[in-house]
UniProtKB/TrEMBL annotation:
Residues 1-20 form the signal peptide. Pfam families: OEP. One of its GO terms (molecular function) is efflux transmembrane transporter activity. It comes from the Bacteria. It comes from Spirosoma foliorum. GO terms for cellular component: cell outer membrane; efflux pump complex. It is found in: Cell outer membrane. This is TolC family protein. Coiled coil: none annotated. Keywords: Cell outer membrane, Membrane, Signal, Transmembrane, Transmembrane beta strand, Transport. InterPro entries: OMP_efflux, TolC-like. Belongs to the outer membrane factor (OMF) (TC 1.B.17) family. Its main location: membrane.
Length: 489
């Protein structure tokens, strides 16, 4: 892979010129995706998504169940109407147990259920010391809604989209972890660069002040210039203290987010003194991203693109539900089987009799005072709103990617320019120092060179930060790695 290398290290105060081992951006991203709380939360959400989809698939498979009441004992007095119309309360003591074994299967295209069952019932009368068995050795039945809304047919379209959406959401969540870690990485890196600048300026200003004291004795510098250099020393001390505080806070935030641990230490390093020295990621990919390809990859990979289809289907589903639930609703229930009864268990299975039943229950709204039409029209308006919203979201979706691609290309140029400016600023400052020592440069011009040197160094780091933020934002928006030309999985 072609890469170009940026030279942004000057002659003074370079980050990384230290004996401490530096941590790279890739190492921080790997830590964040492996052990950060955000990454763990995303993986937990994915497991929830997997089990929810398995639960959906299971409801379309045969279901075997055993239900009943065992025992079902009663001892009490019950009301008994006598032949002459009077009422007497007679004692009862019985156990009426029942067991039912059934195998059922849903019919997704029609929304019905077909089932096969075996049933056994035993009645014990403890007062009369009798028992009686009743059973269904075999039975088959059907329950079929007619003219009703069928949620199973719509679930078969929507639930797979929800599952795919959840899978892509996991990848997006992990890419968001990378983007957040990148932001925190550069917050710390910028603060460390500012700390290095502050340390270098303190040393240089102190050295120049001492030189100025000697030059004052020789009459080569005014008292005003000496005071200006002394003020620079004090300001450098103040900037150094502030930079240390900022770097400590930024380091703590990064360590907390990625769950950073010392070697041999199982606890996260929070508040510990061990510094986290960062390397400057000055090697950037030489990318040329085609906007149309980025949009196509985003449409194929993003959870939002899948959600566009799901939201339209849900709107269509709600409209059909409103139509069918406010019209004629009927349920056909039918069954056939064998049944028998007797004082002994074996009697249930000896020459059982046919058992048939069929029923049709229906509801037909006749006068609703416009309520049914209002519900349907509301659902229709919601569908149109969903279509318009999705269309607008698609345009925003594409515009966001277009903006990010063009921004990435522009920031790549900014990195090159600011790196060159940083190199020039460092060289110019070194020349200004040498000229001041030779009494060939004023204190004011030296201060200007110092400010420009510091600004160039910060601009170079900030340009790198903006580039890498744009790079990982584009990965997040497309779920595609344009550096390796493959989908992010």
């Amino acid at each position: 892979m072609n890469r170009f290398y940026l030279v942004i290290f000057g002659l003074l105060g370079i980050v990384g010129q230290t004996s401490a081992q530096t941590t790279t951006l890739n190492e921080v991203l790997q830590l964040a995706q492996a052990q950060s709380v955000s990454a763990k939360r995303a993986n937990t959400q994915q497991r929830t998504n997997i089990w929810a989809f398995r639960s959906f698939l299971a409801q379309y498979k045969p279901q075997l169940s055993l239900d009943g009441s065992l025992p079902n004992f009663t001892r009490s007095y019950v009301q008994v109407t006598q032949p002459d119309g009077n009422i007497q309360f007679e004692p009862v003591s019985y156990n009426n147990s029942i067991l039912n074994l059934s195998l059922s299967q849903t019919i997704a295209p029609t929304g019905g259920t077909i089932f096969v069952q075996k049933q056994l019932q035993r009645f014990d009368n403890f007062i009369q010391d009798t028992k009686l068995y009743n059973g269904i050795p075999f039975g088959i039945g059907l329950s079929q809604p007619l003219f009703q809304f069928n949620p199973m047919r719509w679930d078969r379209k929507i639930q797979p989209l929800l599952y795919a959406e959840g899978n892509q959401q996991l990848i997006e969540s992990l890419e968001q972890v990378s983007l957040t870690a990148t932001n925190l990485y550069f917050d710390l890196l910028v603060s460390q660069v500012n700390l290095q600048i502050a340390e270098t300026n303190r040393v240089n200003n102190d050295t120049l002040y001492r030189i100025a004291l000697h030059k004052l004795d020789l009459g080569k510098i005014s008292q005003n210039d000496l005071l200006q250099l002394q003020l620079s020393v004090l300001n450098a001390e103040k900037d150094l203290a502030s930079a240390r505080q900022t770097a400590a806070v930024a380091s703590l935030k990064l360590k907390t987010f990625i769950g950073y641990r010392n070697e041999g230490n199982d606890r996260a390093v929070i508040g510990q003194t061990r510094p986290l020295e960062l390397a400057i990621p000055n090697q950037i990919p030489d990318l040329t991203v085609d906007v149309n390809r980025a949009i196509n990859e985003a449409t194929a990979n993003r959870a939002a693109a899948i959600a566009f289809k799901r939201r339209l289907l849900e709107a269509e589903r709600d409209l059909e539900k409103a139509r069918k639930n406010n019209g004629l609703n009927a349920t056909l229930t039918a069954g056939f089987g064998l049944s028998n009864q007797g004082p002994n268990l074996i009697d249930v299975y000896i020459r059982p009799q046919n058992r048939e039943y069929v029923s049709l229950q229906f509801t037909l709204p006749i006068m609703t005072w416009g309520r049914a039409q209002a519900i349907v029209e509301t659902a229709r308006a919601n569908r149109e709103l969903a279509q318009q919203t999705v269309e607008q979201d698609k345009l925003t979706f594409e515009q966001e990617i277009f903006t990010q691609v063009t921004l990435l290309q522009m920031l790549r140029q900014q990195v090159t320019l600011t790196a060159k400016a940083d190199e020039i600023g460092q060289n110019r400052y070194q020349i200004a120092q040498d000229r001041f020592k030779l009494s060939d440069l004023s204190v004011t011009d030296l201060g200007i060179a110092t400010q420009e040197k510091d600004r160039a160094r910060r601009d170079a780091i900030l340009a790198l930060r903006d580039y890498w933020q744009a790079y990982y934002t584009l990965r997040l928006l497309t779920l595609y790695d344009f550096d390796t030309n493959q989908k992010i999985k």
